[in-house]
Amino acid sequence: MVLIRRWRRESPRKFRKFGAWVAVVVGGGNFIRGVAASAMGIDRVVADNMGMLATVINALALQDALEKIEAHTRVVTAIEMRAIAEPFIRRRAIRHLEKGRVVVFAGGTGNPYFSTDTAAALRAMEIKADVILKATKVDGVYDADPKKVPEAELIPEIGYLDVLSRGLAVMDTTAISLCMDNRMPIVVFNLNVPGNLKRVILGEKVGSLVSP
Q: How many domains does the chain have?
């Protein structure tokens, strides 16, 4: 999940031409998902804690990849582990963005029973982001699962209530409700298409828009 906030006049020149400050919220599903682990018999709180720790592993890997292309980054985690990442402090995270750093949020919300989707929505509100970009493997929001229903149709624009009432798998209901209450738009797009992320940030119509 990518959180975008428009730059201000004091932003570094290299970010002015791109037009945005960037923060990333990472999940840990490639290692373990709390809900799935709980279904296998692990205590739900323990399983969710394991899932949040997995997000830190991914955040460090992403940080390493970004810094190899000379992007300055900071890994910020909701679970304190000062030896490898900074604890989440809202004002410090915003200051990193203002200095042109990519902030990678890990550790979810720091609490069990909350998904990475909800963590992304929460962090977006806290840093006053303009939009949440949900990077997926499909081109946007469909009226059915395109992997199971070949004739499923892409929905270019949709409201929060329609997402909830139709049970569309955009983000979980807690995250969608939080975005709806705070009028935070969500763009769902295919990350596997080269250049898509840049096109979205530059304001081109890519994927699907979930908004008021």
A: 1
Q: Say which residues have a Cβ less than 8 Å from residue 210's Cβ, sequence separation at least 6.
A: 141, 157, 158, 159, 160, 163, 170, 176, 179, 185, 186, 187, 188
Please measure the distance between the N-terminal and C-terminal CA atoms of the chain and give it in whole angstroms.
Answer: 20
Q: How does pLDDT run across 89-120, given as a tens digit for each residue?
A: 999 999 999 998 999 999 999 999 999 999 99
pLDDT at 6: 65
Bridge-based pairing of strands 73-77 and 102-106 is: parallel
What's the pLDDT band for 209 if we cut at 50, 70, 90? very high
Q: What are phi and psi of 133, to 5 degrees?
A: -105, 115
Q: 3-state class of 131 per DSSP?
A: strand
Asked if residue 121 lies in contact with residue 109, where contact means CB atoms within 8 angstroms, the answer is no
Domain carrying residue 183: 2-211
CATH number of 124's domain: 3.40.1160.10
Helix (H, G, I), strand (E, B) or coil at 119: helix
Contact present, 78 and 52 (Cβ < 8 Å)? yes
